[in-house]
Amino acid sequence: MKPIKIVHLYPKEMNIYGDNGNVLVIKKRLQWRSIPCVVAACGVNDKLPSDTSIIIGGGGQDAGQSLVASDLQQKSKTLNKLSQDGVPMLMICGMYQMFGHYFKTQDDIKIPGIGLLDIYTVGEYGRLIGNISVKTRWGDIVGYENHSGRTYLASDTTKFGDTAIKQGNNGKDKTEGATTNNIFGTYMHGPILSKSPIFADFLIALALATRGQNIELQPLDDAIESRALDVAKTRPR
Amino acid sequence: MPGLIIESLSKNFVAKSLELIPGGVIIVTGTNGKTTSTKMLTHVLRGQKKVLTNSTGSNFVRGIIAAILLHSTWLGKLDYDIAVFELDEAYAAKFVDIYQPRGMIVLNVMRDQMDRFGEIDYTARLIQKAVAKTTEFVVLNRDDPRVQNMSKDAPKNIYYFRVSQALRSLFRNDDELHKEGDNIVGVGANKADVELIDIQKNGQIKVAVNGQDVQFGLSAKGTFNAQNAMAVLAAGLALDYSVDIITTRLSEVKAAFGRGESIKIDNKYLILQLVKNPSGFRHALISGAQNNQTVTMLAINDNYADGRDVSWLWDVNFKETGGVNGLVATTGSRATDMALRLKYDDIITDIVKEDLLVCLKASLSRTPAGGCLVIYTTYTAMLEIRKLLSSMTKVDKI
Fold first, then answer.
1. Which one of 3.40.1190.10, 3.40.50.11030, 3.30.70.141, 3.40.50.720 gives the CATH number of domain B2-250?
2. Second CATH level (architecture) for the domain B259-390
3. Percentage of residues in chain B with pLDDT exceeding 70?
């Protein structure tokens, strides 16, 4: 089998809040199972590899976001094709927003996204900041959110999970994140995959499927992961 | 906290008091190195002058008011020649509205406590505002693009410090933290007044001052302290001190509390390294790696003053830096998160105990006589650890 290709989208521009850790988690959990993998950085002006198995994108600063906005439009067609093919994509915070239709800033400027997720985002004064716990089909997932944008889902778009009021997508409808095909968008930093090994392995299984491998993943010892999850749930917002 | 009461009583209090200091006020700001640099500059100036400083590490405007109150005569007169204040980014921006400083040192702008400030570009704008209101001179870091950018609003006397190309991979700015390997290219061939050329194992550093080579020793060990010394050297030049006097005084300064501070317990050596953000942690690990420790303890709290968000631990490469070795223990409210982070760098944690006292005792008991225990610790955990240690041995008061 060709090695699993983990594509790290915009590692130079979108890399704060520890989201690079998601790439490390996927890589290590493959290596611990002796499944060959390579990490490919894909930046501005780089072509997305056609043999991509999984794409990871992180949060960034406003400046980083505007640097990648127009380049992402160039990649939109390929990303759409990969998404149709079932390639899993995990997009955090800023990248999550840009996978939607648009981001309207506080000054009423509309920055177009690529619309692979049927969502839109409106900038507001006052950020949603703090520890967050979300109920999902992979169990409780914890993270840390920090965003001024409020994201709204189209009525037929699936939320990533349920959370409490005053946090998550928009602070109002108790939803967090969104998913379409195998694209998963969320506001959760942490990095999210570090304390949710079930979700991480779910993404790995999807990545293996792009290589035609539908194998059962060998279980790993996740005692520290689940203890860290329990601790995080007890911490103040 | 007397400062809190006075602050609300009189907004003019600070301005009126500081106007009486003939040499004006020098502000030290930036994300990392404020406390050490303030201590260094104060010591350099104290060779000839009476210096008012907020030496308690209380770096907010309140701390300055407390310093003024504590050091005023009963007639309200401040008998000082010059003042050196450490201020964090947000308070530096507030302070300049109250009183315009004569000089300012801007060390760096790194990711830190973003749950308070939001973004580092925003933090840079706060400092830029403070720089614009500085009257006489600023000292800027040539290797940090966000700091270098502040030159456009600065008063006309700008003094730059930087590190040599050979040292650049040790001193990465935030945008360079994620680059692999040693190929870090400097901002350019721009001139700097002070350049760090080399750090030797024996603590000697080599510096080019306006192109002239100078060599001297530093009691405050560690890569970051050497960079702080460059900023202070540049500030000394701005204040018309001779290179000789500055370097002699600099070499005498001991590490600030928790910044590579060494404490002896029985026959064991304990080194405290404060860590607050990815860049600072990286420097602490590089410096810590030189101690050949038998036990490494990592104390991670997530209280408000530490920052509630612990995701920054994933922006630090623990393997590459070699600063975690020997027996490994993690502690603090996020002890498990730290152990989890190490696991993904293939480092096994031997002891995970959230309780600081329990972990400290276990780590000390596993440190042999003559051995060294290195503790990397967040801010609130450090305060607690120093308190625990003071019941076991002599620890300097903060």
1. 3.40.1190.10
2. Alpha-Beta Complex (3.90)
3. 88
With an 8 Å Cβ cutoff, is B175 touching chain A? yes
Choose among B114, B178, B352: nearest Cβ to A146: B114
DSSP helix/strand/coil, B321? helix
Q: Which of A191, A236, A237 faces B314 most closely, judged by CB atoms?
A: A191
- Per residue in B88-121, pLDDT tens? 888 899 889 989 999 999 999 987 755 555 678 8
Amino acid B187: pLDDT: 47
Contact status of A10 with chain B (Cβ, < 8 Å): no
- Output the pLDDT for position A90: 98
Res B1: pLDDT:
46
Q: Is B129 helix (H, G, I), strand (E, B) or coil?
A: helix
**What token pair was written down for A112?**
């177009």
A172 touches chain B (CB under 8 A): no
CA A116 to chain centre: 13
pLDDT in tens, A104-132: 988 888 989 999 999 999 999 889 999 99
Q: What domain count does chain A have?
A: 1
pLDDT of residue A218: 95
Q: With CB atoms and an 8 Å threshold, state whether B115 touches A62.
A: no
Asked if B180 and B155 touch (Cβ cutoff 8 Å), the reply is no
The beta-carbon neighbor of A63 closest among B121, B312, B315 is: B121
- A122 Cβ under 8 Å from any chain B Cβ: no
B 18-57 residues with CB below 8 A of A? none
- Judged by CB atoms closer than 8 Å, whether chains meet at A17 and B311 is answered as yes
DSSP A28-73: HHHHTTT--EEEEEE-TTPPPPTT--EEEE----HHHHHHHHHHHH
pLDDT at B313 over 60: yes
Domain membership of residue A101 as a residue range: 4-233
Contacts of A221 (CB under 8 A, 6+ apart): none
